[in-house]
Amino acid sequence: MSEERPSREVHVYGDGRGFVVVPVIARVPGEVVEITPVQRVWLTLGRSTSYELSRALARALSRGMEAPENAARWDGDRGRWWNHHLLSVVIRWELDGVLFTFRQHRADGTWESVDRRRFPPDVTTGALAEELIRYLGRRLHGG
Q: Please, what sign has the CA dihedral across residues 137, 24, 110, 76?
């Protein structure tokens, strides 16, 4: 078991249909692994998207903190989510707040950080969900 566990990180992908919220564990120092099960939140649900996304964030964070080191790796739905998304965000809970790192997938298969936002330590998962929805909305409308 690595010194960096438990993880305090979640990855979120979004497209025109919804979000996938992915639990993350640290297997070796400095390397995180996306694991299953992922949480899917569809934009077409009859329920509040922000409520469902907030719950998915909390469940994925809990799963990443409690998962065994040999948890099953997520394959990005055979790589589709890694290559075809409008939104990719690493959310990291740190002592001084919650950090959003917006990123894009490069042609060589690596990730590039394109923007960062910091939220106060007491921010709720509901507020984080609303920010993700706003950002995806801007991406959907060309912003």
A: negative
pTM for this entry: 0.88
C-alpha 79/C-alpha 120 separation (Å) is 33
Indicate the length of the chain as a whole number.
143
Rounded Cα distance, 57 and 125, in Å:
7
Which residue do the tokens 């080191």 mark?
69
Domains of the chain, each with CATH number or no CATH: 9-140 (3.40.1590.10)
* pLDDT over 50 (residue 3): no
Task: Write the single-letter amino acid at 76.
Answer: G
Reported as a single tens digit per residue, the pLDDT across 100-143 is 999 887 777 777 778 899 999 999 999 999 999 999 988 888 76
Please name the residues in contact with 41: beta carbons below 8 A apart, sequence gap of 6 or more.
18, 19, 20, 21, 49, 52, 53, 56
